[in-house]
Here is the input.
Amino acid sequence: MAPGRAAGGKEKLNVMKNEIINYSLLDIEPDRVAIFETQGIGPGVKPSARVIKLYYSAVELFMKLAEPIGIIHEISIPEFARVYEGEGLNEADTPLQHIFEQASHLALFGATIGLQVSEKIAQLLEDGDLSMGYMLDSAASFCADKAAAAAEQFFLESLLQEGRAGDSTVVLNYSPGYCGWHISGQGKLFQYLKPQTIGITLNKSYLMMPIKSVSGVLVAGERKIHAFKNNYPFCKECGTKTCRERIKSLSVAVTKKN
Ligand code: SF4
Here is the structure.
């Protein structure tokens, strides 16, 4: 076992406990092409001037209201196995259960874009400004995902700085509600992580408040541990197949490096 390794080990040097991530707005900056793509407007399609104007108004509003913050808490493999079990409602077999067992380090994380953005979206929709409400909602969802990606980077950089990771280490996030990890897993995750300290709470349906929040586990390890075939029974119902893009991006990173 590598020195200082936290996951599954007895040594717990420099482990991150309740580490707060103070994001800058640059960390979660909206991206026009990517946000339009989430709305079904591909890179080859030119949006109308009205839609482009709407986009920039929504981004201006977003940048004014966003209060991004996150929290990271390292956890051992046995501890995470208890979090992952949740209420016992996970699918019988899932990618994550094989991935986390091979991790070098694990950390629970939560991040939010803040209450003001979520409240503004709700207000716009309530007032009937559906176009702006929808555009702000798209931007906020995209930026919440960016906050999760920035948490991956934050964790990786910390591990690298402490000599607990190497060039081949990759960190990816996995969340309850996806790929066989039942949404009720949020309950145990919240018990361990306590993201209430940064203003994220959970309702009885396991929905996070503010709505534009993300949570899950950051899994650090060799690239190969994150690769899997998407032939689980629940994959037949999956409309996005986002795992394929993530796995593809890992091999691109390897190719570029070589
Ligand atoms: S195909 Fe969909 S459900 Fe299956 S692992 Fe990939 S993202 Fe998850």
About this structure: The radius of gyration is 19 Å.
